[in-house]
Design a protein that fits this description.
4-stranded mixed sheet; binds zinc ion; Beta-clip-like; alpha+beta; 3-stranded antiparallel sheet
Length: about 210
Amino acid sequence: MPVLSSKPYRVGRSKTGLGLFATQPIKKGSKIIRYFGPMLDCNKKKDDAVENKYLFQITKRWTVDGSVRKNVARYINHACKPNAESDVSTRKLKIVIRAIKNIEPGQEINYDYGTEYYKEYLKPIGCKCDSCEKKRKKKLAEARAEKAALKARAEKKALKQKEKARLAKQGDGLKAKAAPTKKPTAKATSAKTTSRKSTKRGTPASA
Ligand SMILES: [Zn+2]
């Protein structure tokens, strides 16, 4: 397992506030940082009453309270398609954040917080991670395209109806002039669309 010489990260501004960013290349599989804090025993009333966003449950009994200042790993944001993961040792009661992809300097480090956290904290406000933003943008673009298509269709229909009305009016005029003689069919091919349509329109009305 590769060991990094110095801390390969720094706290910096991210889309959603603060985040943890790589300052040097981090190889896939390497340990980045430990997620730590006081160990809470859910069998103790006092411990069980602790409530914050940084609780990390290790076993049914033990939970790490990561809200302490020293726990720099608490700055790592959630992502649905992350470049790191939380590696939990239930035996040692330890949590290590490990790279699951090669991470380049400047890239934000993130891991999947899990479905429980997602449901409780992210779903209500909408996940802001890259893959969710991308999905949202794609959906928006699709919705916009669909709206535009609907509008175009409606405009086309309106135009057609207008044309229909115009032709009907014209047809009435022609019928008044040309009635009762029928136009010779031989001329139909060379005739203009308007006259062809007008004869078609005229017939059911006179019948
Ligand atoms: Zn997401």
